[in-house]
Specification:
The complex is a heterodimer of chains A (310) and B (243).
Chain A (H helix, E strand, L loop, with lengths): L1 H22 L3 H26 L7 H19 L3 H22 L5 H20 L10 E2 L11 H24 L2 H11 L1 H6 L4 H20 L2 H5 L1 E2 L1 H4 L2 H14 L5 H20 L5 H15 L3 H11 L1
Antiparallel strand pairs in A: 1-2
Chain B lengths: L2 E12 L2 E11 L4 E5 L6 H8 L7 E8 L2 E4 L5 H6 L2 E4 L11 H8 L3 H4 L2 H11 L1 H5 L10 H13 L5 E5 L7 H18 L2 E6 L2 H7 L2 E6 L2 E6 L2 H6 L1 H8 L2
Parallel strand pairs in B: 3-8, 3-9, 6-7, 7-8
Antiparallel strand pairs in B: 1-2, 1-4, 4-5, 9-10
The chains are: A mainly alpha (310), B alpha/beta (243).
Chain lengths: 310, 243
Amino acid sequence: MKTVRAFLVGVALIGLGLLLVGLRVNPYAYFAGYVVLQYVIIATAWNVLGGYAGYVNFGTPAFFALGAYTAIFLIEAFGAPLPVLILAGGLVAGLLGLGIGYLTLRLKGVFFSIATFALSVVLQTLIINWDYVGGAKGYTLIRPPAPFFGSWAILLFMVMVGLAVVTVLVARSVERSWIGRGLAALRDNEEAAECMGVPTLRLKLFATTLSGFFLGVAGAPFPYYVTYVEPSSAFDLNYAVNALAMPMIGGTTTWIGPVIGAVLLGTAQQVATVTISSELNLLIVGVVLVLFVVLAPEGIVGLVRRLRHR
Amino acid sequence: MASRIVVRDVDAGYGAVRVLHGVSIEVREGETVALLGTNGNGKSTLIKCIMGMLSPDAGEIYLESDGARIDLTKRSTEEIVELGIALVPEGRRLFPKLTVEENLLLGAYRTGARGDIDRNLPFCFETFPVLRERRRQLAGSMSGGEQQMLAVARALMSSPRILLVDEPSVGLAPILVNRVIGKIRELKERYHLTVLMAEQNFNQATKIADRGYIIVHGRIEFEGRSTQELRENELVKKYYLGV
């Protein structure tokens, strides 16, 4: 029943998005909304591996950019439409996740994080040297007129609403399944999980794959959104930091944590970009993250839970 | 369902360190068998071999169940758990940051046990009332004795045919050891569990065992067909009773 209800809430949110589209507010709102929703997907996807399974991934930009560059490749080679780009971006990034899962099977803790960070650097170097997708000078996409809503900003905003709802619903159902339970065991005590017959290897591969898939999904519409993609923007450190900071701020053990973190931090960054300066974004993230690590290590969800139990 | 575990001529170790040398033991349906030995004699290594966490260099380990023989050396730990063999690991190995209830549910991870949760969870709470009181508490915040109870209860959640218990007395005050051992006896008597218990506390182990083996430096040095035989054995007198 609860699943049905969550599904209905998801549908309602999509409806709300459509309503927002109908209102035709200041176009910048859709533009900013896209970024916030993109972070909802990134944070939620990151959290499947980083929060549920406890494997901290510093290589978010690698997966995100792989989604974006898969899209660029498909646009360049076949002129593929957006839904194909999203699916393909997800699949390729998911495959990368699976591969990374296999490669880092024996790495735990900080060593896993370092490996994923290295992955991002390696992949960026490859892309810089691949001229077909623009290489170091970047890739410019000339968009055809938007097929719906008469504006790409609005269309992409709606696409992101849909993708965010799907991602969060999937993350939620994973959390509440036996897979989620097994991942929590993996996070808490991998050895003990093995003793209990939890298939730790398969679960870890599942988490790296699913997490990679949705990070790629988040990146696939990126070329359409910015119309000019260069390696330094697709592999931006911002993604690595935010992907980690948002779930930490919201709370990593539940599906709602990354959503709360992404909405709060994402919105704060958008507001700061307009009102103060776009350079200040990372500083804000840093300060907020430090505050949370010190004052509320279990994030907002943990804080609320603690207050309620008092 | 008649089932038994047979370990025959097993050699095992870690890298260059050889721990077990031609170990043979057997645990039959409904029995409680003690595996006695002081630290570093290979008790845990043998348990790990049975659970598929360490693969033996030689010998065979199999589960006989209704005439069928299942080779355990070729199976992963998950598969062995699926067969209905549950482990209460040494040092408890709980999930400290999960609640008591979440720990118990993880005990029921094997597919065969998921359907039994509605029956097994109340059973565990009834057997260990303290766990019901603390079901929402983090496992790591409980006392050592309560944690050991939880480790036993978690293993029971998998509806095991055979329960392996590795050193339940380690790190516990004597009075708590008594209580834990008492619980295992109660379970065994009421539910005819098959138990293999590795233990260095001779007196406690012989309270509940039907029979036992004494393992010294990786070899089974004595097989006692009853606790009486164990108590009267010279090795036991030498190693445990200080006679």
